[in-house]
Amino acid sequence: MPPPQEESAKFGRILLKLSGEALMGELEYGADPDRIQAIARQVKLVAERGVEVAVVVGGGNIYRGLAGAAAGMDRATGDYMGMLATVLNALALQDALEKAGAVTRTLSAITISEVAEPYIRRRAIRHLERGRVVIFAAGTGNPFFTTDTAAALRALEIRAEVILMAKNGVEGVYTADPRKDESAAFISTISHREAIERQLQVMDSTALSLCMDNDLPIHVFNMDDEANIDRIVCGERVGTVVSTDG
Ligand code: UDP
Q: Does the beta carbon of 68 sit less than 6 angstroms from any atom of ligand 1?
């Protein structure tokens, strides 16, 4: 099959946020290798269109600092454990991407030089310009934050045009949680401000505020169909678009 045409892509540089849950598939814990491979194939396809792809991975499928804090652990310590969990996911995704034939670099916000490069903004941009898929590990490197905030921060730092926010089992943003509330209605477009005011499940409020203040659009989509990544990149109307105009 000939490689897909570069012209068909709507974006030049994107940031894909994959929560730990998105990597978990049907499992109760950890990462599902089939799921990760399917995601990796899609990311490779998008990269072949000439789109520069950066990925922020979560860690909630392995560990969350809040869970540790609830069990009596120091919150910051728990958060560092959570950040290390994201590194495990990043390495699994890197492996799958390389097996799929993509060239990748993992950049970690916590220095672990034996396994990943340190995060250096200009280096990340250089990798992207050279067509490498960049995986950002260890969130922001700071406790009390989330990988959603890392996604917003890194997207702004590398000047990504859009954040692709992968959700598990839902098509995008709803008026309530559709898994709990039958009357929940799907929302196809909304402004950052309204999403914050109505406390909708786009991303956490710190991350969403950062996107709002910097006019960064977010496409929220269902990761159960990995092809959605490519559809969004090609300009198809998929999931919910969160933007300044709404
Ligand atoms: N975390 C953190 N700072 C960051 C990013 C993550 O302390 O900048 C910790 C936090 O404990 C969080 C865990 O890492 O619960 C896993 O990240 P997150 O919950 O964002 O993962 P996701 O929900 O996307 O799977």
A: no
